[in-house]
Write a structure and sequence with these properties.
single chain, about 240 residues, alpha/beta, Rossmann fold, seven-stranded mixed sheet, four-stranded antiparallel sheet, about 35% strand, Class I SAM-dependent methyltransferase, Methyltransf_25, 3-demethylubiquinol 3-O-methyltransferase activity
């Protein structure tokens, strides 16, 4: 399922990740953004913004926000919560964005990288980030920790939300985390698949710096603790152009 990301980010996705809400975003970003010397009225690109939970936090903390996502469903959800917020949302594939030194910051959060089978396509995203950033701009890059995933993969989980059952099956195939999801309710059964290519911390740092994004902090959790290959659940880079 090479193009899984075109089908997956719909209403069911919002249900599966219902726990990823605005309160969670506030908790995550409050610590992470303390590592970046940002100030009011700077421009930020929220790349793969989804339903806008991080975009709203950025706006509420004084930044001028542009959110980009491929999913019309998630962007429509983001628009529902717009209210008086002046956030500019754009529908686009992250490989195809073409900003030229427009942003002081770019954020790519919640493992929104590694979606493509070919390394050259994943690397194109980093090239686009570099091009979008102003000189000395910052890139906040939140990815899973592949070493931790390999050691702690949970093969199966089940969750019931109201009258809907969510079954998730996880495997690692050819250096790719594959999550197969089955959703059952009183009316139907739906299946989805997520695929994220695993890049080691060394590979990812090399890719970032090859594309002009110098790593200045490597964190292992949303609370800002340093990265530990064996124990950190996340691999979070703060980079500067």
């Amino acid at each position: 399922m090479e193009y899984w990301y075109k089908e997956h980010f719909n209403e069911d996705y919002l249900l599966i990740y219902k726990h990823r809400n605005d309160a969670r975003a506030q908790s995550e970003l409050k610590s992470l953004m303390s590592f970046i010397p940002y100030h009011k009225d700077q421009k930020i690109l929220d790349l793969c913004c989804g339903a806008g939970r991080h975009s709203r936090w950025f706006w509420e903390n004084g930044l001028k926000v542009t959110g980009v996502d491929l999913s019309s469903t998630l962007l429509n959800e983001a628009e529902k919560f717009q209210q008086s917020r002046d956030i500019h949302y754009i529908q686009s594939d992250m490989r195809n964005i073409d900003f030229d030194e427009e942003f002081d910051l770019v954020a790519n959060l919640f493992t929104s990288f590694g979606y493509f089978q070919k390394d050259i396509e994943n690397e194109q995203v980093l090239k686009n980030v570099y091009k979008a950033l102003k000189k000395d701009g910052y890139f906040l890059f939140d990815y899973l920790n592949p070493a931790f995933i390999k050691q702690n993969l949970i093969p199966f989980s089940k969750e019931v939300i109201e009258e809907t059952s969510i079954f998730q099956y996880r495997t690692i195939e050819n250096d790719t985390v594959v999550k197969k999801i089955r959703i059952e309710d009183h009316s139907s059964r739906r299946t989805y698949e997520e695929r994220v290519k695993l890049y080691s911390s060394e590979q990812l740092k090399w890719m970032l710096e090859k594309n002009g994004l110098k790593v200045i902090h490597t964190l292992g959790h949303y609370d800002g603790t340093p990265y530990d290959e064996n124990h950190s659940s996340r691999l979070i880079y703060i980079c500067q152009k």
